[in-house]
Amino acid sequence: MTFTAAQIALLLQGKVEGNPENAVAGFGRIEEATDGQLAFLANPKYEEFLYTTQASVVIIGDSLELKQPVSASLIRVPDPYSAFASLLHHYQQLQTQQLNGVQEPSYISTSAKKGENVFIGAFAYVGDRTEIGDHVKIFPGTFVGNNVKIGDNTILYPGVKIYHDCVIGKNVTIHAGTVIGGDGFGFAPQADGTFKKVPQIGNVLIEDNVEIGSNATIDRATIGSTIIRTGAKLDNLIQIAHNVEVGQHTVIAAQAGVSGSTKIGNKVMIGGQAGVVGHIAIADGTKINAQSGVSKSIKHPGSAVTGSPAFDYTSALRSQAVSRNLPELEKRISELEQMVKMLLKERSNILNPGVE
């Protein structure tokens, strides 16, 4: 697929500077792009490459003042990074829209229902009474269990596993290898020291416009639902335990884990490898730094925490600064102690003359 600068500008509602007929058929980083590729400039530290890039078209910001001539056609937009993301989204949609029909071999239960323009790849399994919306793409090797509901325009990449009774909303993307609806980690300790499994009879509910990375696991609820709210974005290798609720437009980075029954608010940001204990609440807008361990509820919206156990981010920075100065502080304390001893000795000599 080939597009001109003028066509791309129309799509992005941008303005072309240079030849509007310059055409591109792919994408490249601004420092590496070649003729026929499109690049973008969002970070000022890469501006030097704007004047040397071989890209045919470059997306830049409205306010950028050129210091040298540029050979590429430019498309000016208010936010280059967001515009480039939108362009990639449209490009991906064009690619996936071409996928249609059912590949063989695959299994689709006769009681399952599927909408229009659905793609189901080879070796996929779709269980009894499952409902699949319009324009859904289910890639090869995917398992969709019984009584599952999948909304319009959702994409399940290869190897995704959706257990029975789970509900997936519209415009959801789930990447390869992720498991939705496996049993929550529920075991009751017994008097003899063994553990008895607690049946997990709930489900997972994923609302609209959610994206989940590869090899993540979202456990089904013991009773009720584990819920991922509208617009949440989960990275690769994340563990969400039973009965957790992740709020709207919350983002969680790779290798983070959230224990059972914790409620995470809206627009929360959780860094990589962070851990959150069970049965607590995280207030809206909270920022949790990477590798933090959150052991108690965060009640104030907009809080920022770090460390293990996690505490206020600003206070943590002060503590780190003090820690770095500990050797110097120890030296100064030792000097002060020596001065105090000398002063006490002088005082004693004044009060008791002639006494050693």
Short description:
With 356 residues, this protein is of the alpha/beta class.
Describe this protein's structure.
With 356 residues, the protein is of the alpha/beta class. It has 3 domains: 3-97, 3-Layer(aba) Sandwich (Udp-n-acetylmuramoylalanyl-d-glutamate--2,6- Diaminopimelate Ligase, Chain: A, domain 1); 101-314, Hexapeptide repeat proteins (UDP N-Acetylglucosamine Acyltransferase, domain 1, 3 Solenoid), CATH 2.160.10.10; 327-356. A hairpin with a 5-residue loop joins strand 22 (187-189) and strand 23. It is flat and about 110 Å long. The model has no long low-confidence stretch (mean pLDDT 94).
Summarize the topology:
Elements: E1 3-4, H1 5-12, E2 15-17, E3 23-24, E4 26-27, E5 37-40, E6 57-61, E7 73-77, H2 80-97, E8 101-102, E9 107-108, E10 113-114, E11 119-120, E12 125-126, E13 131-132, E14 137-138, E15 143-144, E16 149-150, E17 155-156, E18 161-162, E19 167-168, E20 173-174, E21 179-182, E22 187-189, E23 195-197, E24 203-206, E25 211-212, E26 217-219, E27 225-228, E28 233-234, E29 239-240, E30 245-246, E31 251-252, E32 257-258, E33 263-264, E34 269-270, E35 275-276, E36 281-282, E37 287-288, E38 293-294, E39 304-306, E40 311-312, H3 313-324, H4 326-351
Parallel strand pairs: 4-5, 5-6, 6-7, 8-11, 9-12, 10-13, 11-14, 12-15, 13-16, 14-17, 15-18, 16-19, 17-20, 18-21, 19-24, 20-25, 21-26, 24-27, 25-28, 26-29, 27-30, 28-31, 29-32, 30-33, 31-34, 32-35, 33-36, 34-37, 35-38, 37-39
Antiparallel strand pairs: 1-3, 2-7, 22-23, 39-40
